[in-house]
Structure formats: C-alpha cells, structure tokens
Design a protein that fits this description.
The chain is of the alpha/beta class. It is about 30% helix and about 15% strand. Bound molecules: NADP nicotinamide-adenine-dinucleotide phosphate.
Length: about 525
C-alpha cells in the first residue's frame, strides 16, 4: 500500500455524493470488450452503468466489416466468451455474420442491450478531482466515477494518400465501408493491400469477378489452414457433455499458446516450413517469386487462409507489384506506366492501429493530457491503466498480446483485472491510478521482451511496431498474460480516498498547474 492508502478507514462521503449510486460506470464502445465489461458489471450487481456506442448497433469490428469473405481466422471456439460457449459453430473458423449474431445474442441474453446508448460519441474526458466528465459529440456531457474504454484498436481506417484517388469514377472505398448493394460479379476489381482483409476479399471475389488486380506493396506470409467442419461427434459433445466445452477451450488455448511461444521465442523451423509449404503450392515460378516475402513468417501478423494461394492462381487474378503511382477516373496507373482499368477499387489498407483512445482527448490529474503522457511512446500499466488517469481503464490497450491467438480470452483477462480494481474502488471509495515508475518499469520489461522477437529482428514493418519501430505488442502467451494480470498489485498504485479529495477541493478552489511528465518518469 502507498502512504496515501488510508482507505481502510470508513470513508467520509461528500454530502452530494452520499445519495447517488456509486460507482457510476461508463463503458465506451459496444464491441466484444464493451459487452463483456457490461456482463461482468452485472455479475457484480452493478447496474448503474451505461455503454456509449458511436454507431447505431453493437458489434464493433463485426458490425463494421461486411466485406465478402469476412471471417475470423482464429478458431471460432476460442473467439467466443469462455463462459458462453457456442456449440453451434460449424467450422474451425467462423464467418463475420455468424460472429456478429453470436455477440448480439449474448448481449441480449445477459441483458446488456438496455444499457447501450447508441449514436453517442465521446469527444473528451476530463478528470474533475473525484470523477470523470465526458463530453459527447452533441455538446452535452455526463459524469462517471469510473470509465472503461473499450473502443477497440483496428477501426480507424488508414486511407492511403494516393494522388487522384478522389477522381475515380466507380465505387472506391475502404474495406470497412463495403457498399451493401455492390455487385462485383463479372466486374474489374482492384484490391490494394495484402493483409488479412485483402486476402479474404481476394479469395472470396476471385471465382466470380471479371478481373481482379491485387496491388501488393509487400508480400505477406499466408499460412494455408483448411477451414474444416467441426466433426459431428465434437458438436454433439460440446452440446451435451457438460465438461466438453471447457476441455475443448483449454485444448485450443494450449495449442495457440504453443504457437505463440514458437513464434516469439522458439525454434521456428517447423513453422517456417509450414508457411513455405503453402507458398510452394504456387506452380508459376514468376507468381511465386512475386508472392515470396523477404522477411520471415510471423514478422507481420500471420494471415491464415484456406484458399488465398488457390485464388491468386486463377486466370482472372493478377498480382501487381509495381507501386501505385496514381489513380485516374478509370483505374490505377502503376510505376511501370501500366494503366489497370477498373470498375471498383477496394482499399484494404488497414487501420491507424496506434490511435488507441484517440481522437478522444483525455485529461487526467493535474491537467495531464493523454498526448503528453504518450509523447515519448505508449506508457500504460499492464495495458489496462494509465498514470494520472484515476479510475480509468482500457480494454485492449497498448501492449496487448495481439499475437496470442484469439483476442477474446485476452479481453476477458483485461476485464477481470479491471473488475478487481473496481471492487476496490467501490468498497473503499477511492481514486486509483497506477504509479509512473511502476508503469514505466512494466512497459520497459515488455518492450525488452518484444525487442527480441521476430517482429523487431525480422526486418519488416507492421502495426506491431510504432512509427519509430518500437514494439507496441506483447509477446506473452494468454496464460502468461493471465498470470501478470491475475490480481492488482496495489503497491503499484496511488490510492486516494475520494472523501479526502472532496475535502481538498473545498479548501483549495483552484486547479493545480500541469506537471512535467518527463520529470515524473
Ligand atoms: P493490414 O494487415 O494493416 O494490411 C494493410 C495492407 O495494405 C498491407 O498489405 C499494406 O502494405 C497495404 N497498404 C497500406 N497502405 C498502402 C499504400 N499506400 N499502398 C499500397 N499498399 C498499402 O490491414 P488489414 O488486412 O485490414 O488487417 C489489419 C488487422 O486486422 C490484421 O492484422 C488482423 O489483426 C485484423 N484482421 C483480422 C482478421 C481475421 O481473420 N482475424 C481479418 C481481417 C483483419 P504494407 O505491408 O507494405 O504496409
């Protein structure tokens, strides 16, 4: 406990606070993380919470991505909440619409939907000494004792600054903005990018388009993993045998942990051979050469696809490696002077993966802004908390183990940790913020471990690294991360009774000047 931690004494409530529910919790975002936070709040009997969602329906990634072939290339049974298994998954990987339906169903079942306020975007958050004030897009504001940001990570599209892009006469859009009425059958389609989204789109469209030009800046390793049906006996067992779901979940967890260990610190020989074997199915040496990366498998996020390499070998598909020079009204002109005539142009160009909470502005204790806190890199405490931002938590924040298989078990670890903090906040009526030194120490440990992985040593660029090449990804396996976040270590936190803060506010009537962040680190 810190010297501030006098909270074991009975709290003295400010009169205004005494007659309202405590804590009032606001969750930002109604995707997988936000729904989960809601479920766990209700588990604790906390019903004074609101989930603010910018869109008009829930589901996050799975609401926004509707492109042909959208699917999750992590095992479906691991891409479900551990406490809500879905014995109905029919294949190893699930399609986007089925995943969305699962999370919608689950939100209904756990009575989360009445808590969601749709069409509400948070623009600013400001700590007001003993609570947060959230400013909303319409200029109104609301107060919260605890804020849980579950805004997701890969949702601000990265739109490339290609000259002439706006002059293209046909539909041109990011992969997250697929027009619902678009018919690509027989059309000439350009796809920019070769990440997970582009490979899924290419595999889905290749059989039916007239022509598909895949504009590749960097070849991507694609692991050929068949999307096998779940055997009938297993589906039966998952539905009828009480322990089967848990056992299968643990089996998949162990398998993905093994893959993560091999990828980040093990002998990758077998892994590399499997990746190479997929590439070796390409019979045309010129096409194979185009698709062969000059970095090792796993440097960028690995793409798992049952049929990408088949798709690119179709006569209708052309992998274009000459860089895009500009776009004109009727297509794309590449650096070699070729004009690629197109009816549709898809920008599968990824996301601003390092925006995290932004464009929201967050201002914490002593006027410290998030941008100040992150001026020299992403400072967090165990991915979920931020120094100077009391009673504020993030789900899927910087240094989340994004390569540990499915993100859903990781979100569960985040949320369970946040709920333990919330229990403390609630029981002792305190403001709880991680210390700078504890946060900086944790971040430097993660970066040190990550800097020895192929993400850094492999010589590629990916969203696992920040703009300066510093890892923002955590090489921990799910189990290792669970250990790290098993229980809050309160000696790493500054803990201040809210009643004491309220008394100080009455006495001082002024806001202290912002402090120099660098001096504190
Ligand atoms: P991404 O992996 O970031 O890929 C973006 C692609 O666009 C890259 O090939 C990139 O080339 C290319 N690109 C970007 N700007 C370009 C430009 N100006 N000119 C030419 N090419 C450009 O994005 P994503 O495919 O949308 O996937 C992002 C993440 O979302 C994935 O890593 C994954 O975590 C998640 N995701 C998961 C699934 C799933 O099934 N689980 C499906 C889709 C997405 P460079 O490589 O040269 O930068």
């Amino acid at each position: 406990m810190t010297r501030h931690d006098t909270s074991r004494r009975p709290p003295q409530l400010a009169p205004a606070a005494a007659d309202r529910p405590f804590p009032r919790v606001v969750v930002i975002g109604a995707g997988i993380g936000g729904i989960l936070a809601g479920i766990r709040l209700r588990d604790r009997g906390i019903t004074a919470f609101t989930i603010l969602e910018k869109a008009d329906s829930l589901g996050g990634t799975w609401r926004e991505n509707t492109y042909p072939g959208v699917a999750c290339d992590d095992p479906a049974h691991l891409y479900s909440y551990s406490f809500e298994p879905n014995p109905g998954w029919t294949h190893r990987f699930a399609g986007g619409p089925d995943i969305l339906a699962y999370y919608r169903r689950t939100a209904e079942k756990y009575r989360i939907t009445p808590h969601i306020r749709y069409g509400t975007r948070v623009t600013d958050l400001c700590w007001h000494g003993d609570h947060w004030q959230l400013r909303l897009h319409d200029g109104t504001s609301m107060d919260a004792d605890v804020v849980i940001s579950a805004v997701g990570r890969l949702h601000h599209p990265s739109i490339p600054a290609i000259p002439g892009l706006s002059t293209f006469a046909g539909p041109a859009f990011h992969s997250t903005a697929w027009p619902s009425t678009l018919d690509t059958d027989g059309k000439r389609v350009g796809v920019v990018g070769t990440g997970s989204s582009a490979t899924q789109i290419t595999a889905a469209l290749a059989p039916t388009v007239g022509h598909l030009a895949l504009f590749q800046r960097t070849p991507q390793w694609v692991m050929t993993v068949p999307n096998n049906p779940v055997p009938g006996w297993l589906r039966w067992a998952l539905r009828h045998v009480p322990w089967a779901s848990g056992a299968y979940y643990r089996h998949l967890s162990r398998a993905t942990a093994k893959a993560t260990r091999i990828l980040t610190r093990g002998d990758r020989t077998g892994y590399n051979q499997r990746a190479q074997a997929g590439l070796d199915t390409i019979s045309d040496p010129a096409l194979k050469a185009k698709l062969t990366p000059d970095y090792g498998p796993g440097c960028k996020r690995m793409v798992n696809s049952p049929n990408f390499y088949q798709a690119v070998q179709r006569p209708a598909v052309n992998v274009v490696t000459s860089p895009i020079d500009h776009v004109d009204t009727s297509g794309v002109v590449t650096g070699d002077g070729r004009h690629h005539s197109l009816d549709v142009l898809v920008l599968a160009t990824g996301f601003q993966a390092h925006a995290f909470l932004r464009p929201m502005t967050v201002t914490g204790q002593r006027g410290i802004a998030l941008d100040d806190l992150w001026r020299h890199g992403y400072l967090t405490y165990r991915t979920v908390a931020l120094p100077a931002m009391p009673n504020f938590f993030m789900i899927n924040g910087p240094y989340t183990p994004a390569s540990s298989g499915s993100v859903v078990p990781i979100l569960e670890i985040d949320v369970d940790y946040v709920m333990q903090c919330l229990d403390r906040i609630r029981a002792d009526r305190v403001a709880l913020a991680p210390r700078y030194d504890a946060s900086a120490h944790w971040v430097s440990q993660v970066r040190d471990r990550a800097s020895r992985t192929i993400w850094v040593t492999g010589g590629c660029h990916s969203w696992y690294l920040d703009k300066d090449g510093v890892p923002v990804n955590n090489p921990a396996t799910r189990a290792e991360f669970a250990d790290e976040l098993a229980a809050p270590r309160y000696s790493d936190f500054e803990i201040t009774p809210l009643a004491a803060i309220a008394r100080t506010r009455v006495q001082t009537h002024h806001r202290p000047a912002p402090i120099d962040i660098e001096a504190r680190q």
